[in-house]
Amino acid sequence: MLNFQYYMPTRVIFGPDTLDQLGDTPHLPKGKKAMIVIGESGIMLKLGYLARVQGLLSKQGIQTIVFDKIRPNPESDIVDEAAAVCRENNVDFVVGLGGGSTIDSAKSIATMATNTGKYWDYMQSGSGGGMTPEKDALPIIAIPTTAGTGTEADPWTVITKSGSNEKIGWGNDATFPHLSIVDPKLMLSVPPKQTAYTGMDAFFHAAEAYLATCRQPASDMLALEAVHLIAHTLPDAVANGDDLEARTIMAWACSAAGLCETYSSCISQHSLEHALSAYHPDLPHGAGLILISKAYFGFLAACGEERLGDLALAMGDTLQENLDEEVSGVAFLDALDKLITDIGLADEKLSDYGVTREEIPTLAENALTTMGALFDITPVDMTIEDVIAIYEAAYE
Predict the structure, then answer these.
(1) Exposed (0-12), middle (13-18) or buried (19+): which is 1, by Cβ within 10 Å?
(2) Biggest alpha carbon–alpha carbon distance for the chain
(3) What is the pLDDT of residues 213-232, one digit of tens each?
(4) Taking the mean position of all CA atoms in its chain, how far away is CA 323?
(5) Structural domains in the chain, sorted by start
(6) Mean pLDDT score, 185-196
């Protein structure tokens, strides 16, 4: 029986050149001072994106300060530091400009700008304090420059506890962006390998949302749409980064996958990857998902998960030719293998990022402890022995 909630408070402005609307949109949050959160690499300055955003906000009378210390796999101490800067400067809203790590950080910073204590006090698993924020986060504007996480269309933020190996997702109604501007032209400069990693992150968000036991009709439709578009477009976006049509399709597929995370959820594949990149922070999240994907979905296929066949059909060029012939999980695994090969990532290995076989039991324990809630909505039961076996198969 259907039983679900449908809630999406974010205004999304989508399409090439939509960043220009930041200068005259009537939908900015209230206030006159914003913090713009960017990564520490300096790429937002080099490409001129930071200056454009500052100029457009200035046209609306908004003063800006910049926080530029966000790394891939961002950590909680930086969140707390930036939140203190927000309070000291009486910031009214927070702008996340960049990839998923930057926008996730902006959400967490906005939360801590209005609440007391440390960010980790509010985490609900691992060593988190289990507290509930007393006040809503500051309003958030999301301006993604990659097509990957879908964080512009969901409330979730993933942060690692400083000095630990705990990487945990969190969010509430207040961490939905107030406004998201998705301009595919900002994604034309993303290098091929990063395009592949982020595109596959979006792919797995959609695939997992389609399999999650908390799914609903809206997430099913968007998940199949995103899986289909990514399977058919990501190789082109990787091979021809200046193809605006491919970038636009990927940007929509990414946002659709983000909506899937709102209406449904990721499942335990993400728990397994968070453990990997918590212990190996140089491992890009999308790469980690790819490296465990065939072993993970192979396990689901062996358990008889029937909806993998629907995903296989979504990835195919035509509808099922013989409706009497069942499309199985094996077909999905074949299509997944082809997609990974087509984007040039078939030869990557976990050992390339320093992962060792000896740490697999520790990784499995971490996955079940820090992101255990995702196992509850995975369509098959999984023991720690199953998780270890998936890691072992991926390592091979």
Answers:
(1) exposed
(2) 66
(3) 999 999 999 999 999 999 99
(4) 35
(5) 11-187 (3.40.50.1970), 192-395 (1.20.1090.10)
(6) 97
Asked if 243 and 352 count as a contact pair (C-beta separation under 8 A), the reply is no
Q: How far apart are CA 223 and CA 221, in angstroms?
A: 6
Side-by-side strand order, sheet with 33-39? 11-14, 179-182, 140-144, 93-98, 33-39, 63-70
Q: What is the C-alpha to C-alpha distance for residues 37 and 234, in angstroms, rounded to an integer?
A: 28
Give the integer Cα–Cα distance in Å for 384 and 357: 15
Average model confidence (pLDDT) across the chain:
96
Two structure tokens written together for 107: 């959400």
| Cα–Cα dist 251/255, whole Å | 6
Q: What is the DSSP string of 278-345?
A: HH-TTS-HHHHHHHHHHHHHHHHHHTT-TTHHHHHHHHSSS--S-TTSPP-HHHHHHHHHHHHHHTT-
User: Per the structure block, which two tokens stand in for 192?
Assistant: 């091929």
Instruction: State the Cα–Cα distance between residues 374 and 242, nearest whole angstrom.
Output: 37
Q: How far is CA 221 from CA 217, 306, 358, in A?
A: 6, 17, 41
Across 254-274, b (16+ Cβ under 10 Å) vs e yields: bbbbbbbbbbbbbbbbbbbbb
Per-residue buried b or exposed e for 134-155, using 16+ beta carbons within 10 Å of the residue's own CB: eeebbbbbbbbbbbbbbbbbbb
Interval 87-111: pLDDT, tens: 999 999 999 999 999 999 999 999 9
